[in-house]
């Protein structure tokens, strides 16, 4: 039976980076089969692993099929597994997993829409989000106000925000009517509301924001809001390669599930609006 290092297993489960997991182990917060764990410990399928007393669902790396979903987030859903205010979350419409869980790759604020990735591979999720890997994100943004050449230069050379310097790697006008213009922007990090804050720093207001690409994955035309598609092996392997992870056997869709999704792409399901929007629709 294959085993693996404990800190790697914890990172793969989406609890943080390998370095962060080493620190958690050093602090004595992890136990394996009832014993406090140490750096260098190895674990295998069947071991009882707990962090801060919470039992984890664990299976060895090569036994676990790497899966990735692309989800078209509608306006009004929050990027959280649970919301104390009872608002709908992006996790509510994902397919259930047995003895596993979906890990969200990045996030979008409640008023933003577009591409969200989910995976059951915590290490893949962490690497895709980590700033050191410089994963490109692309957005379609509708802006209220004029983006002058000087403003465009500021936005692409660097603006001081509350949490440091930020900039777009590219900013391209895509048309529009009157003072509402669409722009395509790209950047390689995902700080909180960064796209909106960059435009706001120049006295401009973002009226719509749609993420269209994350790394090698683009939002397909046939995917409607509130729906998801599962990536196939070649798409997942490209994502994994982007962050230096090896391909894994049994990755992605195959067989009947793959054929079912191919039929769905030919005849897309209707869009699903957020429950939040339906509840707040004027009567």
TrEMBL record:
Composition-biased stretches (Basic residues): 269-283
Pfam family of the protein (one): PseudoU_synth_2
Record region (Disordered): 259-283
Keyword Cell inner membrane recorded: no
Protein name (Swiss-Prot/TrEMBL): Pseudouridine synthase
Family the UniProt entry places it in: Belongs to the pseudouridine synthase RsuA family.
One GO location term (cellular component): cytosol
Gene3D superfamilies: Alpha-L RNA-binding motif (3.30.70.1560), Pseudouridine synthase I, catalytic domain, N-terminal subdomain (3.30.70.580), RNA-binding S4 domain (3.10.290.10)
Name of the coding gene: rluB
Assigned EC number: 5.4.99.-
CDD domains the UniProt entry points to: PseudoU_synth_RluB (cd02556), S4 (cd00165)
GO biological process: enzyme-directed rRNA pseudouridine synthesis
Residue ranges constituting the RNA-binding S4 domain according to the UniProt record: 4-60
Gene Ontology molecular function terms on file: 23S rRNA pseudouridine(2605) synthase activity; RNA binding
Superkingdom, natural source: Bacteria
SMART domains: S4 (SM00363)
